[in-house]
Each structure stands twice: as structure tokens, then as C-alpha cells.
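Hi U.,

Before I forget, here's the chain from the pilot set. I'm dumping it here mostly so it's searchable later in email.
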Amino acid sequence: MNILHQYTFQSLKVNRRRTLFTGMGIVISVAMITAVSVFASSFLDYMERKAVYETGDWELAYSDLNETEIQYLNTDKQVDHTFMVDDLGYAVLPESQNEYKPYWF
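Structure:
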């Protein structure tokens, strides 16, 4: 056996209390690192599920497309679903509390 191993074992036998506390410290450190990793992973999963719930399950958004580009996307076999969103503009809100903004977008 190596002289370093012999010295290490001898030191561990002599200082049993310090060895025990060092082992417990290592176990607690590993448990804390594991807990933080699990917490971070579950938090990221929660944020992803929340975003899908609030905004929908979509992967890509285009803006300012012309009619031929829209037709190309609708007929593309790699695209599963498409939908269009358009702003209608402003509408007058008759009973508005704000006199500077008597409209609704």
C-alpha cells in the first residue's frame, strides 16, 4: 500500500470525530446541491407549462406576410396548424372613466 494511503488511514483512525463531521458535511452538501437542482428543474418546467397555458402551444410567429406567403405556409406539409391574428383597431368606449382615452383597443 502506498505511504500516502497508510498516512491517510492512520489520520482517519486517530481523528474519528473530525472524520465523522467531515462525512456528514459531505452528505449534507450533496443533499443540498440535489435539492437546488430539483427545485430549479421543477421551476423551469412550471414556467414552461404556464407559458403554454397562457399563450398557447406554438413554436413560430410570422408578421407582415403577403398572401402568397400565407398560402405557402398553409400548404406546407411540415406545418401542422396555422392561425391568423389581426388587430381590429380602436372602438369608442361610451362610459369611459378616463377622458383622455375614451376608447378600447
